[in-house]
Amino acid sequence: MFETWLFLLFGAVLLVSGVLVITARNPVHGVLFLVLAFFTAAGIWLLLRAEFLAIALVVVYVGAVMVLFLFVVMMLDINLERVREGFWRNLPLALIVGGIMVFEMTAVLLNRIYGTRPLATPVPADYSNTKELGRVLYTQYAFAFEIAAVLLLVAIIAAIALTLRRRKDSRSQDPSAQVKVRREDRVQLISMPPETEK
């Protein structure tokens, strides 16, 4: 009973934060509400005993992607008036896409509730969600996992190659040139006559 109320609480917070993400006037506030939505979704994953997915959601999205979004949004000088002008122009398409998503989620939930399949299959006491996910990922979907890893590696290398620019004003050290330097090249002894008091 407590888990049900906790799930309803997390679900309400997730819905409210999701609505505030798209209705917030300040982009920074929208990003912060999105961080709250990710944390709440991780809590729901924990209630469903999917610990690995919950931790991955927090580490990957909140710890990396959303922090990057937050810094980008804070560093960019976004013209809020131009952003608000496009809201009403894009509203019909957004309503169509949102309606399709709501229909799909409702169909999946109704199939789960009123379908012939049981809602949940019993699992043994020593069942580990992380172990089962790793077993399926590295056996049944090993080839697809390797292809995805290679594609991500190629994307990272391409992003670095596209953004790498050699700056002309940057200073760097050359250790091989420093080792070859002799004392005579850097230090010059000058013989000066002694000064006498007048």
What does this protein structure show overall?
α1 (2-23) runs antiparallel to α2 and α2 (27-47) packs antiparallel against α3 (51-75). This protein has 198 residues and is an all-alpha fold. It has eight helices and no strands.
Task: Offer a quick outline of the entry.
With 198 residues, the protein is mainly α.
Rg, nearest Å: 30 Å
Let me know the average pLDDT: 81
- Please indicate the percent range of residues in DSSP E strands (runs of 2 or more): under 5%
Stretches where pLDDT is under 50 for at least 5 consecutive residues are none
Structural class: mainly alpha
Q: Termini separation (Å)?
A: 103 Å
Give the overall shape. elongated
Q: Tell me roughly what share of residues is in helical segments.
A: over 70%
Features:
mainly alpha, 198 residues, 8 helices, elongated
Write the layout of secondary structure elements.
Layout: H1 2-23, H2 27-47, H3 51-75, H4 80-114, H5 129-140, H6 142-163, H7 175-179, H8 183-186
